[in-house]
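task queued by scheduler; priority normal; single chain, no ligands, no partner chains; default sampling; output format set to structure tokens
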Amino acid sequence: MIYFDHNATTPIDPLVVEAMMPFLTNFYGNPSSLHRHGRAVKTSIEQAREQVARLVNVPPEQVIFTSGGTEANNLAILGVANHRHALFGKTEHPSVAEPMACLNALGAKTEAISVDKNGLISADCLNEKLTDDTGFISIMYANNETGVIQDVPQLTELTKTKGITFHTDAVQAAGKMAVDFPSSGVNLMTLSAHKLYGPKGVGALIHDNKTELTPIITGGGQEGRYRPGTENVAAIIGFGKAAQLAVQQLEERHQHLHTLRAALEQGIQDISGLSIAAQEVGRIPNTTQILMDNIDGEMLLMQLDQKSICVSSGSACSSNSKEPSPVLAAMGYPRKLALSAIRLSLGQQNTLGEVAEFIAVLKAIVSR
């Protein structure tokens, strides 16, 4: 099998599994318990917190563990009080767009910020949307479908003196590129373990410890009361190990992925009617979204699956939708062409041989 769907989820690294195993067997104490079993587990959670903190260059006390990126996004959006007017990018993940819709039901005014044909939000476009009532902005660091990287530090410059809380969903960026919380200028940042070879079911919200944040669930004192409930200990340990490996291997992974993607895009450029979304702008190194005239993306996906090649037609969180990608629609693609899209997201275990095999299979399918 060739797996080119790493933006949906990554295979868990064997070293992460090794780190987790003791906490699925011998170290079973509740970290809130005061006895030695509990204290040992609590210490390990704090070590994992330090590892995740180093991934984005913050002190460990700024890391709030959650059940994943979706919960972290919801906590950021629904947990900040200043919501008279909130802005978000038109190409955001559903776990941002849908909580924003909830704010409307609560009486806030929310607006989507337009993107250009490459999926980028300009400083001018953001500035035009700002009002005296704007209290919250959420703009993702790197898009899950196209891989497009927003210039978050430039955008936050517009809001520094206005008392606006700025959140970024960095789920797809962390582990694939250097992400530095302090220099980004944001107040809140979302991370997820299973996008960087860690386990599913655990993520984090990075909090500047200055922004007022109200928990969206209650019932305990864990995670500074921001996220009550007994911790998913083994998953948190796995997240910490995955973050540690991501820091250690970042340059090596980046170069490997960049090499694979360059070979992939070079190999498919002669297919008639094929285009690559946002090819001319900065993207995370593992992501290519292709569109083809007169091709049905879902049918192509299934034909590739029959050849044991796993790709995606877009966000895994909206894969049951028969509508074209909202991301591509926001970028101005016509409906028919948007429905042809497939996303290839490469990973550290992929090889140039797999890329060559995919190119050959794709060309054979298209020629028929």
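post-processing summary
- The two ends are 22 Å apart (CA to CA).
- The chain has twelve helices and twelve strands.
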